[in-house]
């Protein structure tokens, strides 16, 4: 069976490489700005985690006071 008869079609003789990605080098001002941001740490992520935790705890207390306590003691 020749390459032309195969169900996948003819095979290329060689694979052309993908064009190189051109990324301009960041200026030193941009590097300094990134360093300042990174040096600040993950304050935003910690804030989001704190808010999410507070919401979960608030929902738990709301459920406790609005559902469990009104039902009374189960005997």
Task: Walk me through the topology.
Elements: H1 28-39, H2 43-71
Protein name: Cytochrome c oxidase subunit IIa
Region (Disordered): 1-30
Keywords: Membrane, Transmembrane, Transmembrane helix
Explain this structure to me?
It comes from Pararobbsia alpina. The protein has 75 residues and is mostly helical. The chain has a domain at 50-75. 55% of the residues lie in helices and 0% in strands. The longest helix has 29 residues, at 43-71. It is flat.
Summarize this, please?
This protein is mostly helical.
Low-confidence stretches: none
Main β-sheet description: none
Shape: flat
Beta-strand fraction estimate: under 5%
Number of strands: 0
Helix and strand content put the structural class at: mainly alpha
Could you tell me how far the N terminus lies from the C terminus, measured between alpha carbons in angstroms? 82 Å
Radius of gyration: 31 Å
Rounded mean pLDDT score: 81
Helix and strand element order: HH
Number of helices: 2
User: How much helix is in the residues?
Assistant: 40-55%
Protein name: Cytochrome c oxidase subunit IIa
Keywords: Membrane, Transmembrane, Transmembrane helix
Organism: Pararobbsia alpina
